[in-house]
Amino acid sequence: MQTRSRAPLHIVHPQAGSSDEALVAVQGFHVWFHKHHVLNDVSVTFLRNRINCIIGPSGSGKSTLIRSLNRINDDVDGFVCRGSVRFHDEEIYAQTTDVTRLRTRIGMVFQKPCIFPTSISANVLFGARHVRAIPAGQQLELVEEKLRAVSLWQEVQHRLDEPAISLSIGQQQRLCLARTLAVEPEVILLDEPTSSLDPVSTRAIEELLLDLKQNYTIIFVTHDILQAKRIADQLIFLCNGQVIEQGEKETLFRAAQRPETRSYLNEEYCDC
């Protein structure tokens, strides 16, 4: 079993590639928390500039998988992993990995908005300030750019110094996405980011993701089959800690190879 350590990873950023390029590749990956075997021999690829949706029933390991992609699970008691996760063909669980650097390249938005007890503008800048020096004269420009990117600027431009907690839940989630973008990642991980939102806010997030995939690779966990059908390019069906099937959304919805996949996509039920 592999242990995790923290040291420098040099990530080579290639020229813009085909959307069929596997930017993140998982091979033979296992995860245990203490003696509980959560992910079992998972192999999956996540494609550049696509919305890669991970679907499956509760307890199937979706969140564990996505949190393994930027090593957030490292901080969970009892976490042990074995296998390979490669980003730009670099092994992220290598002993030479700079985990902090890795997390700037692979950002994360959680299920519930994680808002800091400070102003709207300070929330946008929070992560970016820890990564690089931002001259005072450029801070407002950066705040505006990222709030525009998540369609929040028009709603908050006159209240940037107000507490972020004053925003609605839907606005808070878009603010979290703006904060992630400010760090300038290549990959955005989203763990059921719309599960606590109303339908209008949910559709707003979905529309944002459809725009953002032009510049980012998106890995999106959802329990909502209809949502996956609306926005996914690639589907990964996970059940009992194993990948049952993966492929293009249209192919899986039309003619999935595995009966478990057909049952889950059509009836939201599986007997894996």
Features:
Rossmann fold, alpha/beta, four-stranded antiparallel β-sheet, 10 strands, 10 helices, 272 residues, six-stranded mixed β-sheet
Please give a structural write-up:
With 272 residues, the protein is an alpha/beta fold. The protein is built from 10 helices and 10 strands. It has a 6-stranded mixed sheet, sandwiched between helices. The chain has a 4-stranded antiparallel sheet with strand order 2-1-4-5, with helices on one face. The model is unreliable at 1-18 (pLDDT under 50).
SSE blueprint:
Layout (H helix, E strand, L loop, with lengths): L21 E12 L2 E12 L3 E5 L6 H7 L10 E9 L2 E2 L7 H7 E4 L10 H12 L4 H14 L3 H4 L12 H14 L4 E5 L7 H14 L4 E5 L3 H7 L2 E6 L2 E7 H7 L3 H9 L5
Parallel strand pairs: 3-8, 3-9, 6-7, 7-8
Antiparallel strand pairs: 1-2, 1-4, 4-5, 9-10
Helix pairs in contact: 3-6, 4-6
Oligomer: single chain
CATH class: Alpha Beta
Overall shape: it is globular
N-to-C series of helices and strands: EEEHEEHEHHHHEHEHEEHH
The CATH homologous superfamily corresponds to P-loop containing nucleotide triphosphate hydrolases
Helix coverage percent: 25-40%
Mean pLDDT, to the nearest integer, reads 89
Instruction: Report the structural category.
Output: alpha/beta
Main β sheet profile: 6 strands, mixed
Number of helices: 10
- Arrangement of strands in the largest sheet: 6-7-8-3-9-10
Strand content: 15-25%
**CATH architectural group:** 3-Layer(aba) Sandwich
CA gyration radius, whole angstroms: 19 Å
CA-CA gap between termini: 26 Å
The name of the CATH topology is Rossmann fold
* pLDDT < 50 runs, ≥5 residues: 1-18
How many separate domains? 1
Number of DSSP strand runs: 10
